[in-house]
Amino acid sequence: MKKKALWITLGSIGGLILIALITLIVYTKGVYGNRWFPGTKINGIDVSGLSLEESKNTILKDSGSYSLTIVGRDNGNMVVNGSDIQYTLSLGDHLDPYFKESHTSILPHPNQSYDVSYDVTYDEDALTKILNDSPLVKGSSDYPIVKPESAYVQFSDINQCFQIENEVNGNTLKKKVFTEAVKNSLAKALPTIDLTRQDSFPDVYKAPKLTSDSEILKEQLNKYNNHALRFVTWNLGNGVKEELTPKKIAKWIVEDSSGNLSIDMEKVEKYVETFCLKYKTVGATRTMITHNKKKLKVAGGDYGWQLNYEQTVKEAKNALKAKIKQSDIDAYVKEPSNKNRKPLSTKYKASYLNEAFQMNTDDKTQDYDTNNYVEVALNEQMVYVMKNGKVKFSCHCISGRPVEGRKTTTGAYFIKEHQPYRVLKGDDYETPVTEWVRITWTGTGFHAAPWQSWGSWSPSYYLTRGSHGCVNLSSSDAKTIYNLTSYREIVFLHY
Predict the structure, then answer these.
(1) Measured between alpha carbons, how far apart are the two ends of the chain, in Å?
(2) How many CB atoms lie within 10 A of CB 89?
(3) Residue 78 · residue 134 · CB < 8 Å
(4) How many alpha carbons lie under 13 Å from residue 253 in its C-beta half-sphere?
């Protein structure tokens, strides 16, 4: 009995549902038999409850004032008014099949959306002229036309490496593609099109030939950085350093017709020459303070700094030719830090042909010990030994006779050796001397000259009894000079 009652109950409920469903269908069909069902959209326009004819009128009611807004790059925009191109729009019978389809089924079709084609006519010549004369194509003072530019490899002074500069997309339209896009939009009676959407309009703008993700540029970038990414440092002493950086090297890179890169070694040699001359003080004009506290300019001589040019060129070339790991290059380009710079660095201790007492970058001629030096005043025929800025010792001297081949040279020289005994040789003489202190490599030096008549000495004695170029001293004075002077100490000889 219970099962029978249950079946009767379920049957009653099912019957009620069926009656309700049939009632709904009959009602909906009755109300919407000649109208669009609720939620129906045609080309995005809601036509719910409208008859076929009413929906057509609703869709077309604004066709007389139709306009197409075109959005371009760089905030560019323009409007094509339908009235300017004699634009007409009709649906014809395009909508009828959809209306019929929605009413043939037993069940109603609410919330449907349909895309329906239009019948469109307009003056194509008028449209073409409007588009070609528009700011989007022709440009204006407010909307300049920017041509596309390819990405390229360029050296960065800030990061000290080559980097890829991004392309410029510009806003230059392809006229034919642009016109076709507008025509397609007019055919659909679209109110707006956005040309900046790559998914919808991928080819409407002229594009740069190379973009930043180009494999060609990436390969070129690696080649340039492989040549340029070198940090070469020379320690010159006294806290002075000279550095060859990628910025300088980048300017020396040359590319042949096949795209192969190399370093212009002539420019490397020129750089080293300039670098060496920058710190060279040999032969420079120095302003010295004489024994009587006067300033005097003395030029020439061999005292001073002089880098070994040949050795420095060799070091520079070796550093530029050294192989570096690609991983080290990539790490520095990604993050140009001091840490990542270290594997790209080469350090040298500067090689000198000649050295001085100190290196003064503020005044490079102040390279000697300004408190301790020797002054030979040839006009006075006197020697002054300066110690701690004061005259420690002075004595008479006899310099070279002022004739060709015997005149004592002038300039700033360094003391090269001390020998208690030496034989001086010339074309017409061979003389043993004591307390020899060499001043020049060509034979000029201090030494004892007991053969000179020191009792007859005068400032003009050398004019007739002068030496072959050396600075003659009495025996006792020669011993004092020998003991007071030091190796590589500066000697000023002047008139």
Answers:
(1) 148
(2) 19
(3) yes
(4) 25
The Cα-based distances of 194 to 42, 131, 452 in angstroms read: 22, 15, 107
Give the integer Cα–Cα distance in Å for 324 and 223. Answer: 12
H helix or E strand, kind and range, residue 395? strand 390-396
CA separation for the pair 251, 247 (Å, rounded)? 7
pLDDT score, position 454: 97
CA dihedral 471, 475, 476, 481 (to 10 degrees): 30
| Residue whose tokens read 């920058």 | 278
218 CB-near residues (< 8 Å, 6+ apart): 164
Task: Of 76, 67, 43, give the one whose Cα is nearest residue 195.
Answer: 76
Residue of 185, 226, 224, 232 lying closest to 204 (CA atoms):
185
Helices (H) and strands (E) in the chain, counts: 14, 28
pLDDT at residue 353, as a whole number: 97
From 492, 343, 320, select the one nearest 408 (Cα to Cα). 492
Which residue would you say has higher pLDDT here, 312 or 58?
312
Beta pairing partners, 90: 119
Nearest to 412 by CA among 368, 446, 477, 468: 368
Sign of CA pseudo-dihedral 478, 483, 487, 493: negative
pLDDT surpasses 70 at 1: no
Q: How many CB atoms lie within 10 A of CB 379?
A: 9
Contacts of 246 (CB under 8 A, 6+ apart): 155, 160, 161, 228, 229, 230, 231
**Quick one: average pLDDT of 50-77?**
85
Main-chain phi, psi angles of 223, to 5 degrees: -65, -45
**What's the confidence (pLDDT) of residue 63?**
60
99-142 confidence digits (pLDDT tens) = 888 887 766 777 888 888 788 999 999 999 999 999 999 999 99
pLDDT tier for residue 159 given thresholds of 50, 70 and 90: very high
**For all residues of the chain together, what is the average pLDDT?**
92
pTM for the full model? 0.73
Q: Which of 154, 148, 145 is nearest to 167 (CA)?
A: 148
Cα–Cα dist 207/30, whole Å? 58
How many Cβ atoms from other residues are within 10 Å of residue 209's Cβ?
A: 11
The CA distance from 205 to 172, in Å, is: 6
CA dihedral 90, 94, 100, 103 (to 10 degrees): -70
User: Which has more pLDDT, 427 or 226?
Assistant: 226
Residue 30 pLDDT > 90: no
What one-letter code names the amino acid at 354? N
Quote the tokens at residue 483.
């003991």
How does strand 306-307 pair with strand 261-263? unpaired
Which residue did the predictor score with more confidence, 207 or 65?
207
